[in-house]
Amino acid sequence: MHVFTTAAELRAYAEARRSAGRRLGLVPTMGALHNGHLQLVQAAAAQCDEVITSVFVNPTQFNNPDDLRLYPRVPEQDAAMLAPAGCTALFLPSVAEVYPQPSVLRFDFGPLEQVMEGAHRPGHFNGVATVVSKLFHLARPHVAYFGQKDFQQVAVVRQLVADLSFDLELVVYPTVREADGLAMSSRNGRLSPAARAVAPLIYQVLTEAAAQVRQGVPPAQMQALALAALAEEPQITPEYFELIDAHTLQPVQQYSSGQPLALCVAAHLGGVRLIDNVLV
Ligand code: AMP
Question: What's the start-to-end Cα distance of the chain, in Å?
Answer without folding.
Answer: 39
